[in-house]
Amino acid sequence: MSKHTHSFQAEVAQLLHLVTHSLYSNKEIFLRELISNASDACDKLRFEALHNAALYEDAPKLEVRLSFDKDARTLTISDNGIGMSEQEAIDHLGTIAKSGTKEFMGKLSGDQKADAQLIGQFGVGFYSGFIVADRITVESRRAGLSAEAGVRWVSGGTGDFEVESILREQRGTSVVLHLREDALEYANGWKLKEIVGKYSDHISLPILMEKEEWKEGENEQPGQMIKTGEWETINQATALWTRAKKDITAEQYQAFYQAISHDFEAPLSWSHNRVEGGTEYTQLLYLPAHAPHDLWNRERKGGLKLYVKRVFIMDEAEALLPGYLRFVKGVVDSADLPLNVSRELLQESRDVKAIREGNTRRVLAMLEDLARREVPAADASEEDKADAGKFGKFYAEFGAMLKEGLGEDFGNRERIAKLLRFASTASDQASVSFADYKARMKEGQEAIYYITADTLAAARNSPQLEVFKKKGIEVLLMSDRVDEWALNFLHDFDGTPLQSVAKGAVDLGKLQDEAEKKAAEEAAEAFKPLLAKLKEALKDRVEDVRVTTRLVDSPACLVVQDAGMSMQLARLLKQAGQQAPQVKPVLEVNPEHPLVKKLDGSVHFHDLAHILFDQALLAEGGLPEDPAAYVKRVNALLA
Ligand code: ADP
Ligand code: MG
Asked: Is 46 exposed, middle or buried (0-12, 13-18, 19+ CB in 10 A)?
């Protein structure tokens, strides 16, 4: 068949331009990407061969080979994995299937190191070959197809690529890099070994390279390395998690993390265990130090890599962890699951349930360890001291996600609650735990008070806090979107009820003295006629009107009935385009406030009543339903 020229998809062309122009100072990552593709191809073959052993042909031993030719200036990465058909080569090496590419382009920072990491993270790895090559030739034959179905793909990494069919006996893929002038250092055995050791040591597949020997020069000629024709394995070639803990260094654990997560920062901690008795499996779990760019993307999957008896089965096996722990990275290798397990089967498997529970316990224990060492004592061990500050770092990135666990993981609710941290009226930092709060509770205080708002500033300045501030009672300030929802599932902490200061009537209980209680009762009595008039004026907007003791400086505030949905949650639902029930709040007025005192008998009573309501709405971060009407009313009074 003849050659055909194809154009790259526009995104690929753009990406290639970026790759070759912005990543030249961190060239060596190309090898990690190409070896990782070779390794993926072998995983795919192994997986397909589970149902069709004939795919192995007569070469069941899967491997990657590196070879270079200094004179021809080429470096070749070959594998005997699944290979590609002609159409697959056109599709996979000419387009980018993933929607993340555009986002990738936007994320490029100009910082080459970070940008280079992004390449791996977004799965555009193959094109990184063009950092070091001005031409790439790929030859491939898909497992199961005949030698005539071979394909050659060639491109200079600009606008287009050529494809032709070739005769190719060997199954799998060879990627030949025609090295650029400034990348000739990669046609060197030492250099390649060094990079493989750095990035690809843990790859469970052997990576082979032809052995070289030093040969002295004759007749005053310089000596040189001569290939011996013998191939040697240059990586460890055992899956890291199958090795004994004591034989694995911290650097190796970190390198493995970076390889599976494409995260350039080191993980905060990890936990590696062989679990026996009942369901048997190995878990290697990592806590990342920072959230990936698309953590909150709904389509993003979490989960771990699943292996069964060391055979790779799938990425992002969500069933192995509850959703609120989707930030965890790692590997589970099960001894019990069948090799042909599917995502559907995973959902139902009892072994998987046991693994998920085991993983959950382990992750919570890791977090508890970090929380305990957050501020180490002076006499703490060096190991403990090394963990100082890590929990705060973790929490800033993933705390909101952890809160989802209150609703999702009933069995671990208490453990999760202990790990939560909040800002409060006594602390600027989001570092107050429920236990810290309890330890500071006032004599006679019977509840843990909290307020939720759209922003921390709105929470901190809410009129509803006035009486608490006056009495020096701490209130937890919550402004994560998930707070309101999550707190629905937590009614108490360690026996002390949680009480929203924006829900129901304030009951300060024993914190109020007799005189205050009496004054409040008298005010309620004296204000009865005014309250009735207000209720009549605002009857479409409020559920009820009552006097309150929670306000000091403000004339009024809005609260919801005890069991009701808060105004903030209703707003969030509306913003998210969801059906939210109409929430009619209760208007509470401050009987001590001059404005409220003046209300009765005013000729502007109707307007003042609405202004009072709208201002209370503004104060808690809401907006008047009819802002123009509000402005008109205020102006009428000002004039
Ligand atoms: P990713 O590996 O994240 O899918 P890459 O850009 O690295 O992205 O590779 C693109 C695609 O090209 C792969 O998904 C695969 O289908 C195909 N491919 C690349 N290298 C090989 C290989 N050595 N063998 C078979 N297919 C390959
Ligand atoms: Mg890849």
From this structure: buried
Q: Does the pLDDT at position 266 exceed 80? A: yes
Return the ligand 1 atom nearest residue 88 CA: 16
Sign for the CA dihedral angle at 429, 432, 436, 437 comes to positive
The CATH class of the 3-213+224-234 domain is alpha beta
- Nearest CA to 471 among 420, 418, 508? 508
Distances 464 to 506, 550, 625 between C-alpha atoms, Å: 9, 6, 21
Please state the length of the chain.
639
CA distances from 72 to 154, 162, 587 (A): 17, 21, 83
Question: Model's pTM, two decimal places?
Answer: 0.73
Answer whether 173 contacts ligand 1 (Cβ < 6 A).
yes
**How many Å lie between the centroid of ligand 1 and the Cα of residue 39?**
10
Kindly state the average pLDDT of the residues 465-491.
Answer: 91
Of all atoms in ligand 1, which is nearest to the CA of residue 93?
Answer: 12
pLDDT > 90? residue 106: no
How many CB atoms sit inside 10 A of residue 454's CB? 16
The architecture (CATH level 2) of 421-638 comes to 3-Layer(aba) Sandwich (3.40)
- Paired with 161 in beta bridges are 6, 155
DSSP 309-355: TTEEEEEEEGGGS-GGGTT-EEEEEESSS-TT--HHHHHH-HHHHHH
CA of 394 to the centre of ligand 1 (A): 33
Instruction: Give domain limits for the chain.
Output: 3-213+224-234, 241-372, 421-638
How confident is the prediction for the chain on average, in pLDDT?
A: 88
The dihedrals phi and psi of 596, each to the nearest 5 degrees, come to: -70, -40
Task: Please report which ligand is nearest the Cα atom of 44.
Answer: 1
The first and second tokens of residue 528, run together, are: 């009865």
Residue 449's pLDDT band (boundaries 50, 70, 90)?
Answer: very high
* Three-state secondary structure call for residue 30: helix
Ligand 1 pocket residue status of 151, Cβ below 6 Å: no
What is the end-to-end Cα distance of the chain in Å, rounded? 88
Closest listed residue to residue 341, CA positions, set 317, 376, 360, 368: 317
29 Cβ closer than 6 Å to some ligand 1 atom: no
What residue owns the CA closest to ligand 1's atom 14? 92
DSSP letters spanning 108-124: --S-HHHHHHHHHHTT-
Of 40, 96, 177, the one to substitute when testing ligand 1's pocket (max ligand atoms within 8 A of C-beta) is 40
Helices (H), 420-455: 434-439
Rg over alpha carbons for the chain, rounded to the nearest Å, is: 33
Q: Which of 280, 408, 270 is nearest to 352 (CA)?
A: 280
The verdict on the CB of residue 38 being under 6 Å from ligand 1 is yes
Q: Which ligand is nearest to the CA of 15?
A: 1
Q: At what angle do helices 350-372 and 390-408 cross, to 10 degrees?
A: 140
User: How far, in Å, is the centroid of ligand 2 from the Cα of 229?
Assistant: 30
Does ligand 1 come within 6 angstroms of the Cβ of 279? no
The DSSP code sequence of 127-153 is GGGGGTEEEEEEEEE-TTS-GGGEEEE
Q: Which residues pair with 150 in a beta bridge?
A: 166
Q: Indicate whether 99 pLDDT > 60.
A: no
- The band of 363, judged by pLDDT with boundaries at 50, 70 and 90, is very high
**Fold designation for 241-372:** Ribosomal Protein S5; domain 2 (3.30.230)
Q: What is the pLDDT, as a whole number, of residue 36?
A: 86
Q: Report how far residue 102's alpha carbon sits from residue 117's, in angstroms, rounded to the nearest whole number.
A: 16
